[in-house]
C-alpha cells in the first residue's frame, strides 16, 4: 500500500496530501524514469558520476516555479561540469521545451513526470489532490546518496536556495 502523508504541506494554507515516503539525508536516492522529451526517457543512472541537484516544481508556468528554475539555471554556470541540475515537473515535455526556450533556460535539464507520477511517488512529493509534484529540493552525491533534502511545507513558498547551493558546493 502506498504511504500517504497528510498535514505536512499546504497550498495557500489549505492542507494537501503527499503520496510516498519522506526521504532523508543518508538515504539512497530512488531510481526514476522520466521523460526528457516525448520520445526519450532517462533514469537516475543517466546522470551517474555527477553531483545532482533535483529541483522539483509543480508547474513551470507559475511564478515561484519560474523563479526557482531561473535561479538554479543562473547558479549552474558557477557550479561547473561535475554538477547536473535537473528540474522535475509534471508539465508535458512540449510545455517544458517551450518554457525553456522563452525563458532562456540552457543549463538546467527539465524532465517530466507526466506519464506515471512514479517519480513523485518514489520521492514522496506527489500531491494526491492535484497529481502534481510538490516543490522540493534533493541534492545527491556522485553515488546517489541524498545529502540534502527540503520538502516545503507551503507549496507557494520559495525553497532555501542558499542552503541547496551550499549543499552542492560541499560535495565539490
From TrEMBL:
<keyword id="KW-1015">Disulfide bond</keyword>
<feature type="active site" description="Cysteine sulfenic acid (-SOH) intermediate">
    <location>
        <position position="65"/>
    </location>
</feature>
<dbReference type="Pfam" id="PF08534">
    <property type="entry name" value="Redoxin"/>
</dbReference>
<comment type="function">
    <text>Thiol-specific peroxidase that catalyzes the reduction of hydrogen peroxide and organic hydroperoxides to water and alcohols, respectively. Plays a role in cell protection against oxidative stress by detoxifying peroxides.</text>
</comment>
<comment type="similarity">
    <text>Belongs to the peroxiredoxin family. Tpx subfamily.</text>
</comment>
<protein>
    <recommendedName>
        <fullName>Thiol peroxidase</fullName>
        <ecNumber>1.11.1.24</ecNumber>
    </recommendedName>
</protein>
<keyword id="KW-0575">Peroxidase</keyword>
<comment type="subunit">
    <text>Homodimer.</text>
</comment>
<dbReference type="InterPro" id="IPR036249">
    <property type="entry name" value="Thioredoxin-like_sf"/>
</dbReference>
<dbReference type="InterPro" id="IPR002065">
    <property type="entry name" value="TPX"/>
</dbReference>
<dbReference type="InterPro" id="IPR013740">
    <property type="entry name" value="Redoxin"/>
</dbReference>
<keyword id="KW-0049">Antioxidant</keyword>
<dbReference type="InterPro" id="IPR050455">
    <property type="entry name" value="Tpx_Peroxidase_subfamily"/>
</dbReference>
<dbReference type="InterPro" id="IPR018219">
    <property type="entry name" value="Tpx_CS"/>
</dbReference>
<keyword id="KW-0676">Redox-active center</keyword>
<dbReference type="InterPro" id="IPR013766">
    <property type="entry name" value="Thioredoxin_domain"/>
</dbReference>
<keyword id="KW-0560">Oxidoreductase</keyword>
<dbReference type="GO" id="GO:0008379">
    <property type="term" value="F:thioredoxin peroxidase activity"/>
</dbReference>
<feature type="domain" description="Thioredoxin">
    <location>
        <begin position="23"/>
        <end position="172"/>
    </location>
</feature>
Amino acid at each position: 500500500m502506498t504511504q500517504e502523508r497528510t498535514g505536512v504541506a499546504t497550498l495557500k494554507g489549505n492542507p494537501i496530501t503527499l503520496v510516498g515516503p519522506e526521504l532523508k539525508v543518508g538515504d539512497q536516492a530512488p531510481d526514476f524514469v522520466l521523460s526528457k522529451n516525448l520520445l526519450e526517457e532517462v533514469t537516475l543512472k543517466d546522470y551517474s558520476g555527477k553531483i545532482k541537484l533535483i529541483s522539483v516544481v509543480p508547474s513551470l508556468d507559475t511564478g515561484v516555479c519560474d523563479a526557482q528554475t531561473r535561479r538554479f539555471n543562473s547558479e549552474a554556470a558557477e557550479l561547473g561540469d561535475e554538477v547536473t541540475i535537473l528540474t522535475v515537473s509534471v508539465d508535458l515535455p512540449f510545455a517544458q521545451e517551450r518554457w525553456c526556450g522563452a525563458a532562456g533556460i540552457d543549463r538546467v535539464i527539465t524532465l517530466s513526470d507526466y506519464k506515471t507520477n512514479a517519480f513523485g511517488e518514489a520521492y514522496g512529493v506527489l500531491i494526491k489532490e492535484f497529481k502534481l509534484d510538490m516543490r522540493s529540493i534533493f541534492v545527491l552525491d556522485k553515488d546517489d546518496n541524498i545529502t540534502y533534502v527540503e520538502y516545503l511545507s507551503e507549496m507557494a513558498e520559495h525553497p532555501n536556495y542558499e542552503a541547496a547551493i551550499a549543499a552542492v558546493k560541499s560535495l565539490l
